Amino acid sequence: MLWKSIVTMVRSSPLFLFLIVSGAVIDLLFRYLSSLSYKYLIDLALLPRDGKALAVIISALLVLGLTNVLAGISSDYAKARLGSNFLFEYRIRLFRHMQLQSQRFYERFGVGDLLARYTDDIPSIQTAVLYILTGGFLSIASVIVGLAILFSMEWKLTLVTLAGSALLFVPFRMLKSRSLALGEAYYKQLDQFNGSIDENIKAYRVIRAFDLRRSMLDKVEGNLRTMLSIGVQRNFVSSNLNRLPMLAISLLTAVILAYGGYLTFDGSLTIGEFIAYNSIFFTVGTSMFGVTSVLPFFLSARTSLERLQQAMDWKPDVIERDGRELSPVRSDIALRDVNFAYVPDEPVLRHLNLTIPVSGYTSIVGPSGAGKSTVLQLLMRFSDPQSGAVMYDGHDIKEAQYASLLRQVGVVFQDSILFHSSIRDNIRVGNPDATQSEILEAARAAGIHETIVGFREGYDTLVSNYGDSLSGGQRQRIALARALLRNPRILFLDEATSALDPDTERAVNETIRALGRRMSIVSVTHRLANAAMSDRIIVLRQGTVAETGTHEQLLQQDGLYRQMWEKQQGFMLAHGGGSAKVQSDRLRKLPFFRGIDTAALEEISRLFVTEKFEAGTTVVEQGDQGDKFYLIARGKVEVVIAAGTGERRKVASLEDGDHFGEIALMQHIPRTATIVTATPCWLLSLSYDHFHPLVMRYPAIREGLEVTLRSRMQRRDD
Ligand SMILES: Nc1ncnc2c1ncn2[C@@H]1O[C@H](COP(=O)(O)OP(=O)(O)OP(=O)(O)O)[C@@H](O)[C@H]1O
What we know:
The protein is α+β, with helices and mostly antiparallel strands. Helices cover about 60% and strands about 15% of the residues. The chain is built from 24 helices and 20 strands. The strands form five sheets. Strands 6-7-8-3-9-10 form a six-stranded mixed β-sheet, sandwiched between helices. It is elongated. The relative contact order is 0.06. Bound molecules: adenosine-5'-triphosphate. Adenosine-5'-triphosphate binds near residues 366, 369, 370, 371 and 374. Adenosine-5'-triphosphate binds near residues 103, 342 and 371.
């Protein structure tokens, strides 16, 4: 399939093809005519001492040589152009294909994987195509023409040559599968290496802060050593593929010299014919060698072609149609009986029906994993549901022109990635045609204009490393300005402020709330304090709508929302986010502190210590001795379990108000899971050593803990 498109592409450049082919034909002529010329040079000019014949032969050779050089130059130019066109065309094709893809594609092909396809696979195919097109075809043609001449000169000797030439392909048959296997192994290591470089750039702060430099270095060094060893083996096999055919050619040459010499002794060949025969055979031998030397390129390109094909064959999740334009949405956006799963048989949304009026501020809340972000992704058509429909004003968005949908929406994600260019250009991403005053207006509305003009370079300040040169709040505000510049009818927010520190979050939320008067906002958040002011709240549970209403209505319903609300209450963060506290009433809601008197709870609450963690930090490691219990005052962590095979699997997420590690309050036993922070976290920890004296004084605490732990152990064993 891909070969076909390569052939089509090559054929679409007829001028370059003509120059390459004519260069090859002239080169072929030059090779054989100059070899044949020995016959005439010796037999017609040198032996009869004919000066005129000598002059004619030398002039003809000069003209041919000059023509060959000129044809070679134009052929080289054509090859350079064709080669560059090839690189351009296939890199652009892969890039366009990538742009159509969604999350599944990027999960399957990592950064390193994709980079290697651009920088190694495509050039490797290009080299093979050019080599086959020039050296390969020329060599085959040369072998055919050369053998025909040799046959006409001495057929018996040529039959021996032909039979012996089969030897040339023996190394290829022997080494082919080894070469392919080494090619695959090499690319696997290269993908990993590229991935590590990417990781080291993106996560350099975490690597520095947690002193992971040694382990990262060890990882990359191990990777490079394996690559080096495979590279040596691969080159060795390739050079054997090149060199072993030489052995066959040397053998054949010996046979020709011996048998040809014998034919000269018995007068069947003249000396001129013998020398010309040898000279032509030398050219045929070189050409045969040329055919075999294409083979390593061919094998390497075969692996690369398969890898490129894998990526190009990946079907986009969303098929963009040239449907009609979606008119500006006025009434509502809705999900109708939507079923959606990322993994077959693991439904995330189940027969979900929900309607969001295009006015005011709507929050979508729910426990972790309920499908909140998934709903947002479907509303923006990052994926399509497996069944059901997403409607804007009653029109299925699958039938509409994709660009007309995107024009109506703006979005701010939790981690806003900014591009490596000026702040102005980063905002302009929202609308490339925006004027300077529109950019300034968007920045003002996002509350970032004053900060930007305070920078020495103002709007021309370079944003580097995906926005790392700015604070989290500044980054989110620029992302907000970028979304506002589109003048969207609906602004989607996916946990847009939850990774910010409390003061910044409050300030950015005030800005967003003010925007709610100008446009419709749909915000996914797990922090209910942010949802409380919304005009309406949709509560999701396991992919269905559990409750809807305003904050007050939902509290009265006494359902899931109320439970979540109460879980998140009772924590206080000092201004500036330096320390956190938990109230004794909140502690009473923990199952193992239920029934304990207020004085004891007060005492316990004072024992908690604030620990602040950046995103991506391991708080506890599976297998380590547990000595602390943790409450999440703010933030989100992931619970990861390593199976016997060493494979790590995320089993749950915990967020504001959740707790973990209570077993450590009873005894030092190994942690049963690893906890890694997914956002910056403020955790309150209670150590066994501080807690133990209290357990001694209050037997009710021990009893409560024992009951909880027994039931937890029971659940785990089940
Ligand atoms: N790309 C993916 N591949 C496989 N499963 C996924 C993928 N993205 C999300 N999921 C799973 O789908 C479910 C819903 O995820 P989603 O992110 O929509 O939930 P959420 O309510 O936004 O949760 P959170 O608040 O933790 O972000 C979760 O169980 C999650 O693990």
